[in-house]
3-isopropylmalate dehydratase large subunit
Amino acid sequence: MKPRTLYDKIWDDHLVDRQPDGTCLLYIDRHLVHEVTSPQAFEGLRIAGRKVHAPDKTLAVVDHNVPTTDRSKGIDDPESALQVDTLATNAADFGIEYYNELDMRQGIVHIIGPEQGFTLPGMTIVCGDSHTSTHGAFGALAHGIGTSEVEHVLATQTLIQSKAKNMRVTVDGKLPDGVTAKDIILAIIGEIGTAGGTGHVIEYAGEAIRSLSMEGRMTVCNMSIEGGARAGMIAPDEITYAYIADRPRAPKGSAWDMARAYWESLPSDEGAHFDREVRLDAANLPPIVTWGSSPEDVISVTGTVPNPDDIADENKRASKWRALKYMGLTPGTKMTDVTLDRVFIGSCTNGRIEDLRAAAKVAEGRKVADSVNAMVVPGSGLVKAQAEAEGLDKIFLAAGFEWREPGCSMCLAMNADKLAPEERCASTSNRNFEGRQGFKGRTHLVSPAMAAAAAIAGRFVDIRDWGH
Ligand SMILES: CC(C)[C@H](C(=O)O)[C@@H](O)C(=O)O
Ligand code: SF4
């Protein structure tokens, strides 16, 4: 048999039908559902008088619209309250397991799937959310779908797809101290651009990727979509299996042994064909900060704001000037001279326990600058409980950070957590688009340690100078 990639193998094992024009029908193993992209899908089922085909393969949670302050008194904002109530009703009506805003297991959809062992290697996983690529860290084929596809998957447990191309991004070598998974993925997007992965599924490989924890691997796969790829994935290995073992919904006993044997067959074969290859050396990577309004606008923290006049392409030049104007920055400014008003530590990119540990390590015994409002939002109730068991909440509170309830929060400001116009924020999330964190808000993407250090210094600092 021809050598196959990880993507090829999962694809082949889920193919239900292939039409002569290349249109395929794929079986879907897992469907995650959140409040933003599901209401019309359920309404569609209701109108057609259809049921959910496989409720046990479907899991619903609220994350985008939930407040991150005390929820016991309900949700003030009527629109958010309606979104949340609608999901609760739909989950009950269609017999789907649902983690509501008061459930310990509630959290950002891409954090709770792995936590519960709902996300497993070799699976096809979808959700009406672009950052579904996160789950690819387990060696799954995971990607976002639109609301009409959510309805299709709910009704049939299948999805119409055409096959993407294979791309491999190899990150060789060892990461320097203070440089993290977030810096790897920002560097990759800086290298390939936001359209670099278009039409491809990216497999991340190489020593630096293999050395990452599952948390770090999820951070990398999470932002595959910001590099334009359909999905991102990493072959499963011992680190993957150790993370999954004993999770509530992971296979147990002989089912585990069978599953593991299958998982071990998944890594790309020697000699498998990749349509595109990109290589990076981890040893050369610095801590990265974005300067513009696209995730590809990356620069080393030791760098200066670039001059768009150096760009040959006229349209690109104009768009980068516009980004600088929006961001309120001028070419040549040292990134370490850029001061901040807000800091956001959280999101499905960097809201896991390891991220909070990295931020707390920086915050310990220090104080948030008077000019900065900083908040830490755990990615899930279980992350929050774990952090509290380790005393991280105390460290953050003593340093002057706010300690919030889990959810998407200021990653996209669909709730009360927002930037005011022209406020500048160091954020551990994945998108720095105009208005993403609030109207006219200015977002700089960074790693958790860099965000914590920026909160304390009141400006960007090179975390390597702090002994991290
Ligand atoms: C609201 C949702 C549809 C959206 C997405 O698909 O990614 C959100 O999660 C985001 O990060 O922008
Ligand atoms: S945390 Fe941000 S990126 Fe992730 S699902 Fe929520 S809004 Fe989207």
About this structure: Residues 36-37, 64, 129-131, 144, 412 surround 3-isopropylmalic acid (ligand 1) (CB under 6 Å). Residues 20 and 162 are 11 Å apart (CA to CA).
